[in-house]
Amino acid sequence: MPSFANVENVVKGVVSLIALLPGLALITRAIQLPLDLQQLMGGLALTAGVLVVLAVYLFGGRLKRLSAQKVGIAVLALGVVGLATSVYAFSYIGEHTIERSVDGETVQLVVPDRPTGQLATDMVYYQGDYVEAMHDPINGGRIARDIHAQAKPTLWAMIFWYTVAQTLLLAAMVLGAWKVADVLERRRGAARPTEQAA
């Protein structure tokens, strides 16, 4: 039968693997985003997961000295802020991502948050409909180039908010799980003298 003595290692191992899933999901296209953005954010999410696990591991000694109550408050705060940031991040990504048919294939594009110059004038005419604007037989090509040229600040904003949200949620999950594993380890250690005395 499996020994209860290794339960904390199992918890830490499972949580460490879970921390890598958001990045892996993006890289394997389980979550749909524009390809370049998807690859970049997938790599960042994977990196964030690794860094969170490493940080908790390296600061494990300090974590053990914190009370379960303090860690619980930290986990709750990180979780709430992380969830709120996630909602905002995915809302922002959805509002600034459009689909366009190119040579019979549907591709996703990032559109600028605040268009400037001629693109701003075009969007007033098309009432903010980027898809319709790019299908304009005369100006569609220029509008598509303007969108691409002005989309970089929005792209970086997407990356920033997504990475922050993932890092906060991963930190809450990993921190909480490692503290639970520590509590289990302490209880097991406290039970040993009783077992020996019996």
TrEMBL record:
Keywords: Membrane, Transmembrane, Transmembrane helix. The chain crosses the membrane at residues 40-59, 71-93, 159-178. It comes from the Bacteria. This is Uncharacterized protein. It comes from Brevundimonas lenta.
